[in-house]
Design a protein that fits this description.
By secondary structure, the protein is an alpha/beta fold. It has one domain: P-loop containing nucleotide triphosphate hydrolases (Rossmann fold, 3-Layer(aba) Sandwich). It binds adenosine-5'-diphosphate (ADP) and magnesium ion. Magnesium ion binds next to helix 1. Adenosine-5'-diphosphate binds next to strand 1, strand 2 and helix 1. Keywords: ATP-binding, Nucleotide-binding, Transport. This is ABC transporter, ATP-binding protein. GO terms for molecular function: ATP binding; ATP hydrolysis activity; transmembrane transporter activity. Belongs to the ABC transporter superfamily. Macrolide exporter (TC 3.A.1.122) family.
């Protein structure tokens, strides 16, 4: 059985009288240790698919199992625990808190009560070092470049050592040099064993990954 199994997934959104069929029957299997890109044009259903894989958006029908766990058969509370224990997320718009330093932003997911404040600081610093920002831990987001902010977001996503790292258009706001650096970083993390599932509309990102799944109008093509 694959690490992530997606079977016959559909997602419909209703907007007033209209129904948008964002996903129309998607089947995918993702193995442990893979680096997958999900490619498609704007509006093809990529973010919807990723949010459902990540346990953040209930499907209309179909099933997602991760490590044998049927995600949406869990109640909300257990689903939230499962997410926190297994998944890391990186988004295009960083979602950094502007009045917290890079290190404090990276500490945010470390809610585990058993960790002391010092241990949290240490873990966050290690994650920042991993993405090449050990020397900028005390900077606020607006004192960092776009590429650096994205790397802080990646540090925050890996600080809990997640089984699966999800990224939605992580290079969407970056210039070419910063995009390449961020993709190379994902590649390195994957070489160290991290499973990565990335959504993108940029074909250049695919050269870094093991496998590309193309999606159009809510279907795998
Ligand atoms: N919350 C929502 N409510 C209504 N329609 C949505 C919502 N989210 C996405 N959609 C629609 O679903 C389709 C797929 O969107 P999305 O998954 O964001 O695609 P992509 O990430 O590939 O651009 C689009 O037509 C979009 O307008
Ligand atoms: Mg999207």
């Amino acid at each position: 059985m694959a690490l992530i199994e997606i079977s016959n997934l559909t997602k419909h959104y209703s907007c007033g009288d209209e129904t948008v069929e964002a996903l129309r029957g998607v089947d995918i299997g993702i193995e442990t240790g893979e680096f997958i890109t999900i490619m498609g044009q704007s509006g093809s259903g990529k973010s919807t698919l990723l949010s459902i894989l990540g346990g953040m958006n209930h499907p209309t029908s179909g099933k997602v199992t991760v490590n044998g766990t049927d995600l949406y058969a869990l109640g909300e509370e257990r689903l939230a625990d499962f997410r926190a224990g297994n998944f890391g997320f990186v988004f295009q718009s960083f979602h950094l808190i502007p009045y917290l330093t890079a290190q404090e932003n990276v500490m945010l997911p470390l809610t585990i009560a058993s960790l002391k404040g010092d241990e949290k600081r240490q873990a966050a610093l290690q994650a920042l070092e991993r993405v090449g920002l050990g020397g900028k831990a005390d900077r606020l987001p607006n004192q960092l470049s776009g590429g650096e902010q994205e790397r802080v977001a990646i540090a925050r996503a890996i600080v809990n050592r997640p089984h699966i790292l999800f990224a939605d258009e992580p290079t969407g706001n970056l210039d070419t040099a910063n995009s390449e650096a961020v993709m190379a970083l994902f590649r390195e993390l994957n070489d160290e064993g991290q499973t990565v599932v990335m959504v993108t509309h940029n074909p250049e990102n695919c050269q870094y990954t093991d496998r590309t799944i193309h999606i159009r109008d809510g279907r795998v093509i």
